[in-house]
Design a protein that fits this description.
Keywords: Nucleus. It holds the Pfam family RAWUL. It is found in: Nucleus. This is RAWUL domain-containing protein. The chain is of the alpha+beta class and 152 residues long. It folds into 2 domains: 1-58, no CATH class; 64-147, Ubiquitin-like (UB roll). It has 5 helices and 5 strands; from the N terminus they run αααββαββαβ. The protein has a 5-stranded mixed beta sheet with strand order 2-1-5-3-4, covered by helices on one side. The chain is globular and about 50 Å long.
Amino acid sequence: MTLGLCYVEGSCLVTGSRDDPGFKNVADDPAVCTGETKADDSSNKEAAEEKQEEDGDYHRSDEQVSICLECNSSKLRGLKRKWIRCSAQATVLHLKKFIAKKLNLSSFNELDILCNEEILGKDHTLKFVVVTRWRFKKAPLLLHYRPKMDLL
């Protein structure tokens, strides 16, 4: 299964199987991610095609981070595949959305992701987490997820 990703200025992330007949590669339509109008689209069509050729690797050439995602609660089930590899530019928010989608949760905001028993901020990149929280340890990066706890 190959995932298609559109990642434009950190504002749009779409995943899906390219093998699915209904899958639309949003990179073919830059207006979907950037919010451009039809008038803007015609004037920027050539620039968008050039940018698409440059960005066609969907962050596959980025530095990669290997991650083990473990469930830290009896209230949630574990993932079928707990080992993933993704771009070091991905954020904790991307992981929350991924886990919520895989576990069919109503909202990704219901999750906490932890490294060394410390809750990670949603805007932290995985590179930042590796450098600051997993400094002298070997790969893979071990992260735990659990339902969000309301602290007083």
